Structures are given as structure tokens and as C-alpha cells.
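Dear colleagues,

As part of the handover before I leave the project, I'm documenting each prediction I ran so the next person doesn't have to rerun anything. This entry is a single chain, and its sequence is reproduced below.
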Amino acid sequence: MDLESLARGGGRGAYRKLLPFAWMLPTYYAAPPGKPIPMGGAPLVSLPDPDLQARAQRLVNVLYWTAQTQASREGMSDAQILKLFMAPELAFRKGAQAASSATDSGFGGYAEDARYRLAEALYDAIGRSPLFQDWLVVAGSLCSAVPAADAAQASLLNTALVLRGARAQRDAAVPYVLLEKRYRPQPGASDSRRADADQSLGYRYTLDLGQGLDNLVNWDGLTQGFELGLDHAQQTLRNDMNYLGRVLGPNIPAADLQVIASCGMSIVDPSTAVKHGALVALVDGYCSASQDWREPRFQIGRYDEPRGAVAALPAEQFELTELPQHDGYRIDYGLGRYAQLGRRQGVWSAKAAIPLLAG
């Protein structure tokens, strides 16, 4: 994001309201990719890695299903309402049976260039479709590895993908961004290649804080902040805004919207970096056997600056629509235990559009 845009601030775009959609997808444990095929008018996704292709096809299927099932909802065709689709962190992570212990990064990683291939494939699938005009898609994150001389000490990349759908008036903005988070191994992480079998090993890495300001994007006249779970835990976006305030002056406006894709995180008040009355949304993929396979959460609230807290929007403003019982839309999670317990997979949506800014 350029400094001129930051100094000018957001809040001047055409969008006044938000229609959020959050994919309830458990991602804490590695899951098999399945064999989804295009469904509901979704195009075929083509990628060289069959595991990645399967997961990308499922996401595209869910996107098209969401756009079609929600088409009659008030505001879907309103050009002043931004449609936000969110998938959780670790949505793209190789299943245990597909990973090779000789090359795996430690948390189900794909090849280093997979993130670029995936971004292009997703944009080809939705970027020009009229179904996704005025949409913003946070496609979760993809796990990959940065090769090193000592394979056991390879750095990990956890890359969030954020894409813009079509717009009535095309502009010069990039169609998608990759927010790359590098993790370096802590002492004792030498066996972390086996994290597909033992998820606790994936936490033997620490976030490399050498990257900065890549969490901020100015699209459609709105300053938008995006974070993954560990970003939010370490106040990455808030720290970025504080840094800009020191460099450019105290009048730098806060972000207009903050979106978090996580796996094991809740909205944290001190990590909030939006204007007073603006929205903070979080979609989480955490679902653990140790917590009775609870369904992953979706959170959204408004920031109350005087209190320094985010007030959750009333639960009755949202509803979950379950996805069809088909491999093209659902994953087999926890060796089937998740489904056996009656846990759901679906898409959360707001019953009515929500003002981006209160008042």
C-alpha cells in the first residue's frame, strides 16, 4: 500500500454497507483432499498438484454455491454494498496421506510456487464473473515451504490470499494480493516435518517480524487490514498503524475494515486497528478432539474506541446455511468423527447488510 493512500485515508469509496459470508470449515487437523468435481456452474480448476487442485475446486464450488443461494438476499445486487467472503486460515494444507516426509515443510506444505499458481487459478475462476461483482474474497491461507540446505530447518510460509471480484468501473488496482508470513523454526523443531501426524509440532515456529505494512490494502477507497491468526495475536496490524503514525504523523486515519482468517484465535481488543464504529470480522478454522469437536467460529463486531473494545454484533443478525452433503462442498474431517457427532459445515451470512461505519 502506498504512503499517499495511507495519508489520505480510506472511507471515501462507493461502499457503505457490508454483506459478510464466512465459510465454516474446520482446518486444525490435516484432512484428505477428496475428489471434488465442478458443481453448481463452477468452472473447472486446473492445477498441477492434485491435492491443491481438489481443495481449490471445493472453494470455488462453495463460492458459486454461496453467490447463487444468496442471490435473492436484499443487497446482493446493490453496487453500494460490499460482499465479503471469508475462508479460514490453513484452508490449503496437504492431507497427511499426500505429504512426503522427505520434502514436507512440517505443516502440510505445498511447493514454494504453489501460492502463485493458486492465486491465478482462483482469480481466473471468479475475477471476471458477474456473480462476483463487488465481492472481496479472503481465500484463507496456503502452507508452503522455503527450501533450505538443512531440510529439517526449512522456513515455512503461511500465505493469505485476498482477491477482488469484478467492479462496474475498472481501475488500476491489482486484482489480488498475497500476504506472506514467514515462520522460522525454534530450537527443538528438527522433527517438524512430521507435523502432519502431530499438529503440536507446527507450533514450534515463530513469526518472522521482518515483514511490515503488507497487511494493509487500499481498494475501492477503503483502507482494509488483513491478518492471519498469529498476526492478530502479535498485534501486527495495530503495530503497523502505530508505526505509520510515528512516521507520517498522528492524523493517519485508522483502517475502515479489519478481517482476520485464523485457526485458534478470537478477536483481541488491543489488536484492533480500525476507526471508531468500524467493523472487525474473524473466521476461524479451529476444531479439536480435545474440545469435543466444537464447530469453528465466526465473529464480527464494532470497535468502540473510547472503551478500547470490540462489541459483538447480535447473534440473531446471522444464520448458517448448511452446504450440500457432497464431497464437492464438504471435507472429511477427523476421520469422519466431526460428521458423526452432527457437527455442521456451511456458510454464515448476515440476514441484512451491515453499515461499514456506525452512525
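The two ends are 28 Å apart (CA to CA). The longest strand covers residues 135-146.

All the best with the project,
I.
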